[in-house]
TrEMBL record, chain A:
SUPFAM superfamilies: BAR/IMD domain-like, PX domain. Keywords: Acetylation, Cell projection, Coiled coil, Endosome, Lipid-binding, Membrane, Phosphoprotein, Protein transport, Transport. It is a peripheral membrane protein. This is Sorting nexin-2. The lineage of its organism: Eukaryota, Metazoa, Chordata, Craniata, Vertebrata. Its main location: other. Residues 1-104 are annotated as: Disordered. It is found in: Cell projection, Lamellipodium; Early endosome membrane. It comes from Ursus maritimus (Polar bear).
UniProtKB/TrEMBL annotation, chain B:
Residues 20-168 form the PX domain. The keyword NAD does not apply. It comes from Ursus maritimus. This is Sorting nexin. GO terms for cellular component: cytosol; endosome. Residues 13-23 have a biased composition (Polar residues). Residues 1-23 are annotated as: Disordered. The keyword Transport applies. GO terms for biological process: protein transport; retrograde transport, endosome to Golgi. SUPFAM superfamilies: PX domain. Residues 1-12 have a biased composition (Basic and acidic residues). Keywords: Protein transport, Transport.
Length: 519, 403
């Protein structure tokens, strides 16, 4: 989502934006210089070729049941998702993927890799204003896939390695298509780095997927059952969504750590991500301290916008949690329905075998077959329920936690500024006292300190204004993203429901003549 | 909780087809039913031109226990040993439904008023469905009796239909229940004994086949019935899940300030409608599949009972033969032995004849009932799937059409 946070195309960007950021400074100037040195691309994200087939992202969730009808459905879907201008179609094909994970794992892997090649970057001649005006900001041509989970090692030291494939025409990357192997802790390490750099200045850094000791242990121990494959698939999909969200963030995309994560074949192991490590414990302590601080900071909110937004996000959080819990129940019951349908199918077959009236016997066997197919259908729908609906909700619940974190950082920033002002006041008092007491050297010292703290107050104010500004932009971007995400997923989910119903119609229509044939 | 069953056949779910043979000389139906605290009162209405009855049209009020009394009277009557006695209707059981309503009433403060109203509506519909089913089961029982040329002439049946007062048939007390239970055990033990008796050969291929067939069929249909019940139950749970989902989407929609507002609200409405459709799918599966399987499970048990009685008669016949031989060798009481053997032979043969007819009727009844219900099931599933598709497509169009 670019929009307001436009990646500076050329030198006439506003470098001042970048300089104000404390840590990010070097980062951005280096990026700007890279851009300046590559004349071929007016934008850092060159727009992809129009040959990007719109269908490639769409059908994946549906590839489980291939049918000619489907093409129409999905052509519609991508078309609609492309919102306004027709020019956008090619770009947007990379959009549907983020929040949506295909229904069946196996079919996912193959098509993903072989999809559109972005190796021919055709540059759209767009002015910067056009980019700024883009309500959608799909300026970034980069596609990430996480696939091929592979178990490495044995016993408790084993881990899963995932292949991270990047396809891009962005010039900041040395190649247009490349892949690396990463393990879960690498992802956590990436997030940790990004969070430490950007969170406290107001950027909403997408959270990494959660750890799961139980899930991972089962995998390590080598249980080859369906629950551990499900766990791995769930994780793989979550990691993919995580990366996709991260690269969609225009600022984060520029980060060298992210680039290193995507590109370099060797990555130093992120040990600090272990739950029980020293860093882990420190994190927990900090979190607790933060919670306490939050309660004691009483900020004079001069800007009603922030208060309003915070309340909004709080409400949203509550509602999403409720919805998520209900959807989880739905998934569970659908799985139960599937199992019960399978059991019934078997007993119907047995009954058919016993039945001595030939036509009825045949009809009962057909019924058994229909029920078996319906069981499959229920299973697939349960997958869709989960991967599309449920996971979207849980992703957003965690994202909103990140948003809340950013608001908290703003409060802390304010606190710092406030404290600086108080200290400045104290220093001025000291100066006044020293003047009265007539101690020249102490006066000088006091004056020095006053200057120091005046600077700090100024800095504090600037920081506060900067973080407020950044948050405003970020929230705007986040909300736009959220609307798009939800709409896309809702449509995809409904289409999966339609698919199920259509299949049901097919099966029952085939069965009806069999039932009528009972003589 | 009170429930009233309206008169008129249309409102009753005819879950099993009964071969009424188009005979209108005796028509029986349950024209009304009232559910009180722990019992159901059925109004049994009879229309008949038979000379037996004092009037051509009359009705009485009967309770479940009286139906059971009637059923047992038939079973215990030697005259009907060669017939399949229509299975007794199951006891009306509102326990589960009542419990759920109570739990809902006790309240979970986290649900909204709309959710509560919907859940209450669901449970009330469930209660009503159970009520309708029990009425249908009791009615089918009587109608089968009325349609059967032999059974309809039973004196107890007339009493049941006509006698205005309470039949003073109390429910079985524990001793009687235990007695019934023991009787069943004795019966199966007896059956096992008879079949293992050496020298007892099944002379008729037809019955040999029927026996093996019914044994297997009965156990498999029982299995199928149980599992169909579970499927129906899962479907119901699924439909109920849509209630909190719809409510949560509604809340989300009302709170949103952006374009998602209409999306969420439309989605909430969609799930509410889908819920109703899923609920109908569940209840149709219940009626057309579960109930039918359950009925034929009971009917096949009744057929098995018939076979047992015939086997018993065959054993008696064999024993009488042996006794006659013994009497002849000893040359004592030959006459009595002869006449006894004659009697047993006659009884066995008449039983066999009527049993054969009954079993063939059973088969044709079963086939036509399955056919009817499976066709209706498929048609209803199609109807609901098409309705769901339409609903989903409309919502999709609406959602995609928005900016």
């Amino acid at each position: 989502m670019a929009a307001e946070r436009e990646p500076p195309p050329l030198g006439d960007a506003k470098p001042t934006d970048f300089e104000e950021l404390e840590d990010g400074e070097d980062l951005f100037t280096s990026t700007v210089s890279t851009l300046e040195s590559s004349p071929s691309s007016p934008e850092p994200a060159s727009l992809p070729a129009e040959d990007v087939s719109t269908n490639s992202n769409g059908p994946r969730p549906a590839e489980v049941v291939l049918d000619d009808d489907r093409e129409d459905l999905f052509a519609e879907a991508t078309e609609e998702v492309s919102l306004d201008s027709p020019e956008r179609e090619p770009i947007l094909s990379s959009e549907p993927s983020p929040a949506v994970t295909p229904v069946t794992p196996t079919t996912l892997i193959a098509p993903r890799i072989e999809s559109k090649s972005m190796s021919a970057p055709v540059i759209f001649d767009r002015s910067r204003e056009e980019i700024e005006e883009e309500a959608n900001g799909d300026v970034f041509d980069i596609e990430i896939g996480v696939s091929d989970p592979e178990k490495v090692g044995d016993g408790m030291n084993a881990y899963m390695a995932y292949r991270v494939t990047t396809k891009t025409s962005l010039s900041m990357f040395s190649k247009s298509e490349f892949s690396v192997k990463r393990r879960f802790s690498d992802f956590l390490g990436l997030h940790s780095k990004l969070a430490s750099k950007y969170l406290h200045v107001g950027y909403i850094v997408p959270p990494a997927p959660e750890k799961s000791i139980v899930g991972m242990t089962k995998v390590k121990v080598g249980k080859e059952d369906s629950s551990s494959t499900e766990f791995v698939e769930k994780r793989r999909a979550a990691l993919e969504r995580y990366l996709q969200r991260t690269v969609k963030h225009p600022t984060l995309l520029q980060d060298p750590d992210l680039r290193q994560f995507l590109e370099s074949s060797e990555l130093p192991r992120a040990v600090n991500t272990q739950a029980l490590s020293g860093a882990g414990i420190l994190r927990m302590v900090n979190k607790a301290a933060d919670a306490v601080n939050k309660m004691t900071i009483k900020m004079n909110e001069s800007d009603a916008w922030f208060e309003e937004k915070q309340q909004q996000f709080e409400n949203l959080d509550q509602q999403l949690r409720k919805l998520h819990a209900s959807v989880e129940a739905l998934v569970c019951h659908r799985k139960e329905l599937s199992a019960n349908t399978a059991a019934f199918a078997k007993s119907a077959a047995m009954l058919g075998n016993s039945e001595d009236h030939t036509a009825l016997s045949r009809a009962l066997s057909q019924l058994a077959e229909v029920e078996e197919k319906i069981d499959q259908l229920h299973q697939e729908q349960a997958f869709a329920d989960f991967y599309m609906f449920s996971e979207l909700l849980s992703d957003y619940i965690r994202l909103i936690a990140a948003v809340k974190g950013v608001f908290d950082h703003r409060m802390k920033c304010w606190q710092k500024w406030e404290d600086a002002q108080i200290t400045l006041l104290k220093k001025r008092e000291i100066e006044a006292k020293m003047m009265v007491a007539n101690k020249p050297d102490k006066i000088q010292q006091a004056k020095n300190e006053i200057r120091e703290w005046e600077a700090k107050v100024q800095q504090g104010e600037r920081d506060f204004e900067q973080i407020s500004k950044t948050i405003r932009k970020e929230v705007g971007r986040f909300e736009k993203e959220r609307v798009k995400d939800f709409k896309t997923v809702i449509i995809k989910y409904l289409e999966s429901l339609v698919q199920t119903q259509q299949q049901l119609i097919k099966y029952w229509e085939a069965f009806l003549p069999e039932a009528k044939a009972i003589a | 909780m009170e429930g009233r069953q309206e008169a008129g056949k249309e409102s009753k779910p005819s879950s099993v087809s009964v071969d009424l043979q188009g005979d209108s000389s005796l028509q029986v139906e349950i024209s009304d039913a009232v559910s009180e605290r722990d019992k159901v009162k059925f109004t049994v209405q009879t229309k008949s031109c038979l000379p037996h009855f004092a009037q051509t049209e009359f009705s009485v009020v009967r309770q479940h226990e009286e139906f059971i009394w009637l059923h047992d009277a038939y079973v215990e009557n030697e005259e009907y040993a060669g017939l399949i006695i229509p299975p007794a209707p199951p006891r009306p059981d509102f326990e589960a439904s009542r419990e759920k309503l109570q739990k809902l009433g006790e309240g979970d403060s986290s649900i909204t008023r709309e959710e509560f109203a919907k859940m209450k509506q669901e449970l009330e519909a469930e209660y009503l469905a159970i009520f309708k089913k029990t009425v249908a089961m009791h009615e089918v029982f009587l109608q089968r009796l009325a349609a059967h040329p032999t059974l309809r002439r039973d004196h107890n049946f007339f009493v049941f239909l006509e006698y205005g007062q309470d039949l003073s048939v109390r429910g079985k007390n524990r001793k009687e229940l235990l007695g019934g239970f023991l009787r069943n055990i004795v019966k199966s033990a007896d059956e096992a004994l008879i079949t293992s008796m050496s020298g007892l050969k099944e002379v008729d291929d037809f019955f040999e086949h029927e026996r093996t067939f019914l044994l297997e069929y009965h156990s498999r249909i029982r299995d199928a019935c149980l599992r169909a019940d579970r499927v129906m139950h899962s479907h119901k749970c699924l439909a109920d899940d849509y209630i909190p989902i719809s409510a949560a989407l509604n809340s989300l929609g009302t709170q949103e300030v952006n374009q998602l507002k209409t999306s969420f609200l439309k989605l909430a409405e969609l799930f509410e409608r889908l819920r109703k459709l899923e609920g109908r799918v569940a209840s149709d599966e219940d009626l057309k599949l579960s109930d039918m399987l359950r009925y034929y499970m009971r009917d096949s048990q009744a057929a098995k009972d018939l076979l047992y009685r015939r086997l018993r008669a065959l054993a008696d016949y064999e024993n009488a033969n042996k006794a006659l031989d013994k009497a002849r060798t000893r040359n004592r009481e030959v006459r009595t032995a002869e006449s006894h053997q004659q009697l047993c032979c006659q009884r066995f043969e008449s039983l066999s004849d009527s049993a054969k007819q009954e079993l063939m009727d059973f088969k044709s009844r079963r086939v036509s009932s399955f056919r009817k219900n499976l066709i209706e099931l498929a048609e209803l599933e199609l109807k609901h799937a098409k309705a769901s598709t339409l609903l989903l497509r409309n919502t999709l169009v609406a959602l995609k059409g928005e900016p």
